[in-house]
Request: fold
Amino acid sequence: MISEQGNHISINGMGSANGGTYENVEINGHGKVNGGLQCRNLTTNGRSRLVGEVRADYCQVNGSSIIEGSANVNQLVVHGSSTVNGSFQGQELRVDGHTRFNGQVTVDRVDIRGSLSVGGKMDAETLACNGKFRVDGLLNVEKLELTLHGSSEAQEIGGETIQVKRSFMGSGLGKVVKDFIGISDRLTANVIEGDHVVLEATRAHVVRGNYVTIGPNCEIGLVEYKTELQRDPGSSVREERRI
Amino acid sequence: MEDDLISKKDLLELAGISYGQLYRWKRKNLIPEDWFVRRSTFTGQETFFPRAKILQRIAKIMNMKEDLSLDELADVFSPEPASIEMDGWELVRRGIVSKEALALYEEVFASTSGLLSFDHLLSIYILHGFLDRGDMVLDEGRKLLGILQTQLNEQKGLSGEVLLVRKLGISIVLATANRDTLWLEDGLRVLARSSIAVRSEELKLKLGAGGHAHDQ
Reply:
C-alpha cells in the first residue's frame, strides 16, 4: 500500500513511489523509490531500493537498503546492511552491521560496530570502529580508534591520533579459538602517519610519527619517529630511524 | 626537478608542523590534492610537494589561522569565486582599487551601475595592480580587461596567469590556463605578469575572507 499524505510517503507491504521533495518517507516491507529523493526523515524497515541521489537530514535503515546514487545525509544510521553506489557526505554515520560506499566518504563522526567498506578515500574527524573496515584510498582521520575484529585494510592512514588494538577475543584463549577457525584480527596498510600512533596486530610498510608505540603482533618494515618509540618484543620491525 | 620538490618529512621539519596538522589541512582543502606528489624512493613510496607553493601556502595558513577558522581559510584558497557582489565604487572607497582602474573598466564594459560579481571585481583588481605599478598603459589595460573576461568566463576555477609581453615596441596581453611553463621567442620580453589565483586570494582577504568573516 502506498499513501501520500501532504508531504509524506509511506510504503507498507510492497510498492514503489516516485522521488521528489518530502517531509517524511517511510518504507515498511519492500519498497522502491524511483528518482532523486530529498526529505527530512527517511526510515526504511525491511528492504528498500532508492534509485537516484538521496538528500536527507536523517536516515535510518533497519534491514537492508541500496541507494543507487550518491547520498548526502546529515545523520545516517544503519542497523543491518546498506550499500551506497556513489559517494557519501554527512555529519554522522553509525553502522551496526555492514555498510558499503562505492565512492568517497566525507563525514565528521563515524561509529562502526560491524564493518565498513569504502571504494575511494575517506575523510573523517573521528572514526571509532569495533569490527573492521576497508578503505581503498587514503583514510584521513583526526582520531582513529580501531578495535580489531577480523581484518581491516586501508591504502594509507594519516591523522593526529591513531590507535589500533586487539579485541579481548584477539588475545589469549580467544586468539587460539580464532586461529583454529582461521580468523585473524589484523590491520594492513601501506603507510601509517600520525602524531600519536599506537598499534597492535598491524602489518605496514612504513609507520611515521612523533610518539610511536609498536605493540604485540606487528610486522612493520620501517618506523620513523621523532620523539619516542616503544616496541613490544613480540613484534617485528625491520628498520627504525629517529628523525 | 628534484630541487623543486620537498619531501613530506623535510616539509614538517622546515615548517615546524605535525602530521596531524598537515592531514587536517588536507581534509579542509587548504592544500590541494594535486600538490601531493607520490614518488617511489628506496624506502618505498614517499610524498613530495612543490616546494615554493607549499611553503608559501603553509606560511599563509600559519599567519591567518589565528583570525580565521579553517573553513573560512578554505574559502580564501578555493579556486571557486567568492559568493560576493559589490558595487565597483565600494572597491574604490575601501582603497582596494584606484578610480582610474574602475573608470577604465566602466569604459570598456560600458556599465556604470549595479553590483558586480567576483569575476568582475577580480578583473578590476588585477588591472589596478598593473596600472598601479606602472606596468601598463591605458590601452594595454583595455586589452587586459577583454582577455580576462574571456579567460574567467571560459575557464573553470580561478587559475592561470596574465602576462604583458613586448617585442619591437608592440605589446601583447596573454592569458594562460593552469600551465606553469611558457616558452617565448627571442627578443620577446615579459614586462609584467600576474597570477590569477594569488590575486584572487588577496582580493578575497581584502573583501573579508569569503565575504562572511567580518560580518559578525
